[in-house]
# Entry
Amino acid sequence: MANVLVIATVADGALSRSSLELVAGARTIAPAVGGGIDAALLAAEAADGAVEALHQHGVGVVHRVVHPLLATGQSDAYLAAAEACVRAASPAVVLVAADTVGREIGPRLAYRLGAALATEATGLEVADGTVVVHRQVYGGRAVATLAVRRTPAVVTVKPRALDAPAPAPTAGVVRDLPVQLADDALPTRVREIVREQAEVGLEDAQIVVSGGRGIGGPEGFKLLAELAQVLGGAVGSSRPPADAGWVPISWQIGQTGKTVRPLLYLAVGISGATQHVAGMAGARTIVAINKDPEAPIFGVAHLGIVGDYREVLPPLIAKVKALKGQ
Amino acid sequence: MHIVVCLKQVVDPELPLRDFAIDPQTRRQVREGRPLVLSTYDENALEVALQVKDRTGARVTALALAPQATVGDQIRLALAMGADDAVVVDDPRGPDLLGAAKTPVLAAAIRRLGAVDLVLTGCESADWVERAVPPLLAEELGAACVTFVARVTVEDGRVVAHRQADEGYHVVEARLPAVLSVTSDEANRPRLPKVKDIVGAKRKPVQTWPVDALGVAVGDAGVDVLDVRVPERTTRCEFLEGEPAQQAEALALRLRDLKLL
Ligand SMILES: Cc1cc2nc3c(=O)[nH]c(=O)nc-3n(C[C@H](O)[C@H](O)[C@H](O)COP(=O)(O)OP(=O)(O)OC[C@H]3O[C@@H](n4cnc5c(N)ncnc54)[C@H](O)[C@@H]3O)c2cc1C
# Structure
């Protein structure tokens, strides 16, 4: 029987959110592929909680590789561990999160397995017994539909594109897989890890206040940070502020940057280029503040304010504070 | 030190929406009559290569897989910016091939260039955004791989790269040869060529290699493109009117009604 295998990782000791999203994708396609759902759990520590979470959401066999090198964003270590798990499980389809490590190892894994490859999926489906992948193309202007023609196949899935699944507990087993990894034998080594957004991660924030080129410089982002703080949200940006060094690159939202699906997305001084919209169109409520009434962002926003953000944000901050009784 | 930069030619991604169309036959964007440019991040990759050249005297070769008849301006821009050599692998299918299909061809061209220490590419193409070619090339060439890097230095036969990560960045050291994919940041904004370099680049030779002469078949991505379509947008924006203070108050009240406060 051919299973679907998800490559699962651990974040802050627990199963990462994107791994759970992959399980949701696996549950959509597993019936058509003909089997159950396995996971490869790549972790620095035993991570029994993550194993349990996988079983709770319908994963039968968890192939677990535990090694200290699997904590460092060290993609070559993840690749070796993932390859060992895939060879042990011989799945029909492998799902990999398109995050920092996943977007490096997904195609490399496909190459090593001689597998079909589809990257950056935003939706998975089964049509006529075939696995079908949806993905954005042309800077978010169009959506492509791909049919997976042969197995095995590797599909990388954009984080935050799929919803996390509801629980569906299953009696599962864990199989520990010994994998030899030596730091100095790998072609790359992570020397340093620099974190830039410590509070709520941008991708997990329920409210995101995002600024674009129209903010004019790093100073203006202080106003956005103040608004984000009173709203209890995180600050993001379009590409120009990240390119210009006004904010860290890791704040960038859009095709190249992060995908976010908060309850509220406030786009301030952002024109609404399709490459930006590609990363935020899934937000529940989109509010745009822009001084140009013709800005394309108003085409995707639910609520719009035509105006200069420097005049709108200070009274907004004051009013929100008043309503929240702060 | 020899650096190869892979450059892709795409329809200008800033093209107004009214000029954007999908060809129902090829299921790709209509290119005819549209301005062609170097794919956005490929220019950053070229800039990173030229910065390494400025510091170490490396030789930089620009490599494009494209229909030769249309790629002239882009490859000459690379020469004007400072690339030493330019090679076009002439393939009329170039723009329509999926990443996994074109990688064996690019790899064969790179091998034909001789000993190459670094291969740089954009982190994603501006059109299909597969992000597949750099890791596949690394495997195909048996090279180290680091994707989404913004800053690169070469020291003692190793390359040190800042890789953009989900919560910040990683400093990654890789052995050579290596394939790096490049994203943009303030440090690698593409340089503007001087007029004299643009003129000079017109006289520089561009080698053209027919794809058949490379002796490789295109690869098979194992997926079929069933459909490419422009989704309909249905959102209707409600504008909040008045002076800024009134707009701000109206917004705050709406956020409260939506239970967001
Ligand atoms: C391959 C590729 C990948 C890309 N990836 C991304 C990505 O991941 N994320 C991304 O965002 N972009 C991405 N882009 C870039 C994208 O195409 C746009 O260039 C970018 O999103 C524009 O950013 P912006 O809206 O902040 O700036 P602009 O388009 O310059 O818009 C600025 C807006 O601010 C408004 N404004 C100015 N002053 C004020 C004021 N005082 N008050 C209120 N409003 C004001 C203006 O009216 C204007 O609408 C990518 C492009 C390519 C080709």
In short: The first strand of chain A starts at residue 4 and ends at 11. The mean pLDDT of chain A is 96.
